């Protein structure tokens, strides 16, 4: 028989964390969470489960799930039947919610993720989202090879695209509102076939609704206004319908349809129809200084910060020379980030891309983090197609190629298409040099092999920036910041033990830098929870927030064993 499992940060006799409740849950159970903030990331595999927030409407009684600074999704589900009700879910470095396969229903919830899509629906999951708010995320909703319905979903203030529909996905978006997206409001590509009914897309930083090649989109009673670029754009080879739609106040063309696209229009209103107007980028000095200040706040990385500042200085001076009518040499925006993992390469890459946009060098767009699997196909020609799609999705922003060296040819591997990806990257770096920046990242020695894979590859990059391992001081500060953001503090003697631990770790190829600090932080929270549950009395406020020297000693000994 299905059970009700309760989670609370304050009550005794119930589960203190969501992870523990999920660990004990059986198929069909419901987990109800009391108001409060739960800083943890959980994974649910292959079961039917309902998560319900036991809270009111105001902020003080909200149920808030947060991934902290972790890279894993706050909630990740695979092959489950999952229902979420009345929750506020925030991603750390990853998604707030990621669901693959199975079924998903979300109602009355708010989601956000500053460094990833707030919601990622993939790999055939069937979904139903209603009365959901997505706010202040890198992208709002990413739908990949998945079908379902978004109804009365509000997506606001996305840094990049509001909603992305790709890889053959066929969702229905009904009465949704997408506003204030930094790039496109809705982006449809890779053979996707969505239906948009009664949706409103306003204030997009680029095109309001962009329908890519080989996609089919049906828009009925939609309103697309105040787009900085085109209102609605159908690219070459796309198909679609515009029925009773209003498209107006676009910076470019209200409705832009490629000559090879097949689109029917009936009813509605559209102003400018035809050739698109060019988008103009302009410098934003205040934004530049704000981004440089954000860079400076990062722990350590003094050499990296100096290198990035020198590039920005050169770009700024070149712009002043250009305005003065002086000769300016062409300058690539592409970089190599070399060094160990966990040293902030992705974060620096995001800031760098935003700096280029703030300086008017790039139009402004997403940071698209990709690896070999996102670029390399299974047959001749497939790799070039996948690589081109990635660059198109990142247009205006940054392609961040992690572990780039994995694309190099493998000895004796005749069917490896990594080299095809490299050759295509070289071509696109040149063809799109004014629309995109490429950052290739990986271990220092292996990156040399990557640069040797194509005669023109090394010359495409303006500079190689070395990311050194964090020092013991840096890692101690990083974990201290994690604790502060999670409402924890270090007790007497604990900080010194942490420093000694980080100072003693070998900086070999397995060293994860900030990732190791994150893992240690999670272990410390676990040890503290075990200690507090063993107390005879309810823990005091000081008990709840303090990580003791004994906690640190237990955790570091276990990791050193």
UniProtKB/TrEMBL annotation:
Q: What GO molecular functions are on record for this protein?
A: ATP binding; ATP hydrolysis activity
Nucleotide-binding as a keyword of this entry, yes or no, is yes
Instruction: List the PANTHER family hit by this protein, alphabetically.
Output: AAA-TYPE ATPASE FAMILY PROTEIN / ANKYRIN REPEAT FAMILY PROTEIN (PTHR43392), AAA-TYPE ATPASE FAMILY PROTEIN _ ANKYRIN REPEAT FAMILY PROTEIN (PTHR43392:SF2)
Keyword ATP-binding present in the record's keywords: the answer is yes
Q: What is this protein called?
A: AAA family ATPase
Highest taxon above the source species: Bacteria
- Key words of the record: ATP-binding, Nucleotide-binding
The similarity annotation says: Belongs to the CbxX/CfxQ family.
Residues annotated as domain AAA+ ATPase? 331-471
